[in-house]
Amino acid sequence: MALNGSTTNQALLDAQLELWQNTFGYIKSMALKSALDLRIADAIHHHGSGGATLPQIVTRIMIPSSKIPHLRRLMRVLVATGVFAAQHPPPAVGSSGDDEDEPMLYTLTPVSRLLIGSQNLAPITTMNLHPAFISPFFELGSWFQHKEAPESCELFKHAHGQTCWGQADRDATFNALINDGMVSDSNFLMDIAINECAGAFQGITSLVDVGGGLGASAQAIAKAFPGVKCSVLDLDHVIANAPAGDTGVQYIAGDMFEKIPPADAMFLKWILHDWDDEECIRILKNCRKAIPPREEGGKVIIIDMAIGVEPSDLRHKEMQAVFDIFVMVINGKERNEKEWKKIFFKAGFSDYKITPVLGVRSIIEVYP
């Protein structure tokens, strides 16, 4: 059945393919989650740069032999989506090289290399794929029809009966999931941020990492700039799990909505996108009270997305749009420059600078 006389059959099939790409996108996410659960990247890495065959992977991930054919199908998806690569091994001496039954060699790609090693992104990826964050999306359509205002019935609460932060306060395992995820992201990103925009941290002698969790960002800043006294402000149940020993960072239990300790600079990494405009203005006003004038080095340093600011290729645009919906689950929001400017000025700041050097995220310096 033709929908339009000028529409070719191939165009219809292309449109169907695009529809299927969106329909079955969750399969890619769940395949990645399975790879994390099974530690497939670690299993391949264990066998060295030459890669690992399926039987070698199985010896590490310990699955029943009856599931091996299904694992082969999972690996096909993970290869097709770029998580892993696959190739036939070099032919043995004396072999014709056309043995199709030769076991496939699976190797790591730049994507899966982010899932191994001491500073990997597996914890933040595990957090983002946790059922607590995925299941609310099954309620997205009905949530839009809900008569209550978003701030009084966030999507996470609509699905779970409590807010994300309320659950973290009451559930130690969920709290660890979030804190470990944030540590892994900071371990990955902060060296890049410091290398790409060192000037943002120069000229200050003290800094408070507001909502800084277990302090990975503050520790990176303190290591790169030994003359900067770094502190971390977070809630009691977070600070209770702060690392022991000499981290070079002071940990302070408190509430950023109430009061923030004084310092030359406030640092907020992936904090403001968790909150609506009014809550952000409250946080920023408290930051403003805690820093000196601009001529004395006072500033707020933010790492967050600035939608529409370069780079603006299709992949960046899509990921910023997707992330905006992701944080909408907890009543958060990704902002464009106009929206950032609005809350900065409402909070009493006079100027700002956006430096888009962190992929889909930017470093934003805000001045009193």
From TrEMBL:
Specify the O-methyltransferase C-terminal domain's residue ranges: 139-350
Residue positions of the active site = H273
Keyword tags: Methyltransferase, S-adenosyl-L-methionine, Transferase
Q: For this chain's UniProt record, which GO biological process terms are given?
A: melatonin biosynthetic process; methylation
Q: Which residues form the O-methyltransferase dimerisation domain?
A: 20-116
UniProt-listed InterPro entries: COMT-like, COMT_C, COMT_dimerisation, SAM-dependent_MTases_sf, WH-like_DNA-bd_sf, WH_DNA-bd_sf
Entry annotated with the keyword Membrane? no
What Pfam family does this protein match (any one)? Methyltransf_2
- Keyword Transferase present in the record's keywords: the answer is yes
The superkingdom of the source organism is: Eukaryota
Give the matching SUPFAM superfamilies. Answer: S-adenosyl-L-methionine-dependent methyltransferases (SSF53335), Winged helix' DNA-binding domain (SSF46785)
State any single GO MF term: acetylserotonin O-methyltransferase activity
Please give the subunit comment from the record: Homodimer.
Q: Which family does it belong to?
A: Belongs to the class I-like SAM-binding methyltransferase superfamily. Cation-independent O-methyltransferase family.
Q: Which PANTHER family match?
A: O-METHYLTRANSFERASE
Q: What is this protein called?
A: O-methyltransferase ZRP4
Q: What is the lineage of its organism?
A: Eukaryota, Viridiplantae, Streptophyta, Embryophyta, Tracheophyta
